Task: inverse folding
């Protein structure tokens, strides 16, 4: 007596081969997905765009360079403004050079006393004291950033993602 429901041996072998191949593909897909997921961090390492700079009283009248933020903070009495030290050509840090004679200009309708100019050591771009590019390969002026006072502790705060016009001034207290 024979078993008419038994599968021929070749069908069973094909089934097992397909099952094995399917399991291999599934395992490979899961491993690839896990590897790709591991490349994406669970936390953001982006630096915050707002930075506390210290109490306004720590800023002298005139100019103060902040190397970590690559920023010049200007103070005239109780008013402040901040100009980027990042050259608009290829990103070198510009240096400030004091003018022999300060001059006052009208900048976007606001009076501005220029005491410095900015020079880029990399390819010789020159900027006026308000950040306007005047010579060299720099394609545009230095950026101005918004300053504010922290409501928590009264420190000066810069937002390096918030560019402002050159008539911006922060008046403190
Ligand atoms: S990076 Fe400043 S002039 Fe080139």
Result:
């Amino acid at each position: 007596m024979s078993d008419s429901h038994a599968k021929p041996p070749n069908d069973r072998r094909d089934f097992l081969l397909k099952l094995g191949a399917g399991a291999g593909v599934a395992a490979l897909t899961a491993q690839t997905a896990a590897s790709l997921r591991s490349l994406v961090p669970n936390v953001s390492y982006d630096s915050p765009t707002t930075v506390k700079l210290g109490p306004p009283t720590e800023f002298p009248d005139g100019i103060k360079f902040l190397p970590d933020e690559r920023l010049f903070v200007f103070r005239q009495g109780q008013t402040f403004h901040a100009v980027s030290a990042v050259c608009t050509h290829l990103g070198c840090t510009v240096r400030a050079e004091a003018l022999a004679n300060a001059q006052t200009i009208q900048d976007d309708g606001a009076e501005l006393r220029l005491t410095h100019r900015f020079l880029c050591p990399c390819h010789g771009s020159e900027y006026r004291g308000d950040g306007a590019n005047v010579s060299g390969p720099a394609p545009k002026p230095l950026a101005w950033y918004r300053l504010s006072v922290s409501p928590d502790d009264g420190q000066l705060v810069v937002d390096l993602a918030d560019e402002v016009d050159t008539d911006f001034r922060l008046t403190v207290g």
Remarks:
- The chain has a mean pLDDT of 86.
- The longest helix spans residues 9-38.
